[in-house]
Design brief:
Order of helices and strands: HHEHHHHE
Shape: globular
Number of helices: 6
Strand content: under 5%
Helix content: 55-70%
Number of strands: 2
Largest sheet: 2 strands, parallel
Oligomer: single chain
Strand order of the largest sheet: 1-2
Distance between the termini: 29 Å
Radius of gyration: 14 Å
Structural class: mainly alpha
């Protein structure tokens, strides 16, 4: 347990959950964060992005059903719908800090207006 990372997590997600979610979504599709690609979708439709984000991270970790198996999507929808907060914490714990740390990305100018190509699913 790293107390510095725990404090950073609380600060990043509390002060701008949309920014942290967008950065995590960008990580899930192997892209730098973009306003059009990642921030706007998270802000406009966070619950839908939560499902896609869980799917992408699950596929990236090679956990659960294969990407082509529809039951994986069904499980992602049910988990996010029934226990979204728990699933969000699980997703945050499963990735390195750099995956959601928008403060570092802003400092290092790793944000863009738009990143090509537009990817939604890994």
């Amino acid at each position: 347990f790293n107390i510095k990372d725990a404090i950073k997590c609380c600060v990043c997600w509390y002060f701008c959950g949309t920014c942290a979610g967008a950065k995590l979504f960008a990580y899930s599709v192997d892209q730098d964060c973009g306003v059009v690609n990642h921030v706007i979708p998270v802000w406009c439709c966070g619950s839908c992005i939560g499902i896609v984000l869980r799917h992408n991270l699950r596929i990236k970790a090679k956990a659960g059903p294969a990407p082509s198996d529809m039951m994986g999507w069904v499980g992602d929808v049910l988990i996010m719908w029934c226990c979204g907060y728990c699933a969000e914490c699980q997703m945050i714990r499963s990735v390195p800090v750099e995956a959601w740390d928008w403060l570092d990305a802003v400092k290092n100018k790793k944000w863009a207006v738009m990143v090509k190509p537009f990817k939604f699913v890994a």
